[in-house]
Amino acid sequence: MGCASCGTGGSPRGCKNNGLCSSGECDKLEVRDWLANLSLPENQKPYEIVEVRFKNARKSFYRNTNNFTLQTGDLVVVEAATGYDIGIVSVTGELARIQVRRKAPSFKHAEARKILRIANQEEINKWIEGRSLEKDLMFKSRTLAVNLKLEMKISDVEYQADLSRATFYYTAEDRVDFRQLIKDMADQFKVRVEMRQIGSRQEASRLGGIGVCGRELCCSTWLTDFRSVSTSAARYQQLALNTQKLAGQCGKLKCCLNYELDMYTESLKSFPKTEVKLKTEKGEAYHIKTDVFKRMLWYAYPGESAWIVLTPEQVKEVQEKNKKGVLPKDLKIYHIEEEKPVEIGFDNVVGQDSIGRFSAAKKKKKKKKKPNKPSNVSPE
């Protein structure tokens, strides 16, 4: 059975709960409660707010007013706008308190919806049935949108556990009037229809895929906090501003450009300003490129193809001299020879470098057998 909660379609490794992600082994938004083994102080009640996860990355906080004994991975029935829904408990206890404080600082406990009960087998079967109908429902809704000539793309559908409501997630460049589409879908599918517009990053996280690094997309496995990525992140990392290489499958700048940005900005604080030209008796040299890891800067004179390699300390020294009116004779006196990479070639350590040494084996010369000489002894 495929994973019915995260929509990845695969069966989690070591899953012992009928393919549901309650064992946490599919690494889809996995949460490990490191505070579970800690006992509460005396006279302190367990935290009643519980984090519940639904399809893909959708999460919400609910109140455990009935004091159910819940653990991570339990399937619970929760209140919805109309009817009920089923989700998987992802965080409980004191870790949920930290999540509420970090994710929803303005969260009001009294207004939170409640956990009704722990889901029984009949409700789980109905929930899984709704998951199996979502793909066919999405294709039919796309057909209706094309017939109405609407400039929109329906990328995902999520059924409510009681099959009374279906949420359609779509992307569009401009505003779309889908009133007629909702009427057609309600008549054909016999459910309450809710349209929800999402961004291109959220669409990529729902659809999934493989990135240029060879791994699954970060947004579809663990990344839930979508921060804005600007071209300045590429400039700090000395990357060429090529949109085709810097863009991900969502068409936006890759989220991984922000991963090492703090390290680059911290390292560049010790580098001199590169927009300042270095003045010498030979002329003014301008900056070409910077290598943050090797701590090297490349400068060149106008009209010359030879680049001069300097360290940040040497560049600062020349800039200080220029401020005092002192002009060095030439930057080549500071030039550093770059270390050439060691070329690792083929070394015949065995002494057998011929591929066809087995096929071209020398044939042993066979000795011809001499014919038997007739004996001189006459027969009696």
Q: Specify the overall morphology.
A: elongated
- In terms of structural class, how would the helical and strand content be classed? alpha+beta
Total of helices: 8
pLDDT < 50 stretches: 7-27
Strand order of the largest sheet: 2-1-4-3-5
The largest β sheet comes out as:
5 strands, antiparallel
Q: Your description of this structure?
A:
By secondary structure, the chain is α+β, with helices and mostly antiparallel strands. It has four domains: 31-119, no CATH class; 126-202, GMP Synthetase, Chain A, domain 3 (2-Layer Sandwich), CATH 3.30.300; 227-269, no CATH class; 278-334, no CATH class. It has eight helices and twelve strands. The chain has helices spanning 93-103, 121-147, 179-189, 200-207, 231-236, 243-246, 261-268, 312-323, and strands spanning 49-53, 59-63, 75-79, 84-91, 115-118, 153-159, 165-171, 192-197, 278-279, 284-291, 296-300, 308-310. The strands form three sheets. A five-stranded antiparallel beta sheet has the order 2-1-4-3-5. A four-stranded antiparallel beta sheet has the order 9-10-11-12. A three-stranded mixed beta sheet has the order 6-7-8, sandwiched between helices. Strand 3 (75-79) and strand 4 (84-91) form a beta hairpin. The longest helix has 27 residues, at 121-147. It is elongated and about 85 Å long. Mean pLDDT is 82; it is low at 7-27.
